[in-house]
Amino acid sequence: MKKLLLGLIRLHITLLIHLKMKISDSKEQGFLFDWNFAFLQTSSLIIFLTLFWFWWEFETKETETFLSRRRFLLASNATLSITLQDRFSNVRN
């Protein structure tokens, strides 16, 4: 997924550079703006943002799951250590 997002970022940057060159060429030569290319650029931006949103949601869910598991493990370890301390203190007494 990360490779796909990086590829889309590269494509988007390439399209932005190409669009800037097209606009400057159009202004110099007096041509009209290339609407087909603008549509392509907008479409790639929408696809990129959609995939980024899905990636962000996936990463956030994974992080929340990891943190909740870690909290559970820390709580269970704390409970276990308290239980063991109680047992060892009872054995000593």
Layout of helices and strands, plus pairs?
Blueprint: H1 2-29, H2 35-92
Helix pairs in contact: 1-2
What does this protein look like?
With 93 residues, this protein is mainly alpha-helical. The protein has one domain (2-92). Helix content is 92%, strand content 0%. It is built from 2 helices and no strands. The chain has helices at residues 2-29, 35-92. Helix 1 (2-29) runs antiparallel to helix 2. The protein is rod-shaped and about 90 Å long. The mean pLDDT is 66. Keywords: Membrane, Transmembrane, Transmembrane helix. This is Cytochrome c biogenesis protein. The chain crosses the membrane at residues 35-56.
Would you kindly provide a brief summary of this structure?
The chain crosses the membrane at residues 35-56. The chain has 93 residues and is mostly helical.
